[in-house]
Design goal:
Structural class: mainly alpha
Number of helices: 8
Helix content: 55-70%
Strand order of the largest sheet: 1-2-3
Radius of gyration: 18 Å
Strand content: 5-15%
Number of strands: 5
Distance between the termini: 68 Å
């Protein structure tokens, strides 16, 4: 059993506090320790690290609200961390595309659709821009009742 366990990669999801720390680099002392601890997990213990769409969305808001980062800069910083090789988006490469998008619906709507798609679900919405995304559809309300 132990030889089988060694071949299996442990998969862990990070929380928002770690993603924000990796994105801001603040405070510097804790940033260095966080990177060292995560690197140790990846290199020595062969752990694969992921950030969920919910964590990415929460970090996006936290960067704006608590750190005064603009939306474009927050998206660029998150994309940089999530493409660094240390942490990957759990919903796949499409998250990196969502972080690069400048037209259509917002990042949080895109992350919602990606999470549902990762769960094998289609997203229903009343939002026209969101409904234009793959794996999303606009809910038909039918005629209004009198």
């Amino acid at each position: 059993m132990s030889s089988v366990r060694k071949l299996m990669t442990r998969r862990c999801g990070i929380d928002t506090s770690i993603l924000v720390r990796l994105t801001t680099g603040e405070p510097a002392r804790d940033f260095d320790r966080t990177v060292a601890a995560l690197t140790r997990l990846v290199e020595a213990e062969h752990v694969a690290l992921f950030a969920s769409p919910m964590v990415i969305g929460e970090a996006y808001i936290a960067l704006q609200h608590h750190y005064g980062v603009s939306k474009p800069d927050a998206k660029a910083a998150l994309r940089s961390v999530l493409s660094s090789g240390l942490v990957a988006p759990s919903a796949g490469e499409e998250v990196l595309e969502a972080l690069s998008s400048r037209h259509g619906c917002g990042l949080l709507d895109r992350l919602i659709v990606l999470q549902y798609a990762a769960d094998g679900l289609e997203t229903l919405t009343l939002d026209r821009k969101m409904a234009a995304l793959p794996k999303a559809a606009r809910l038909s309300l039918g005629p209004a009742k009198r």
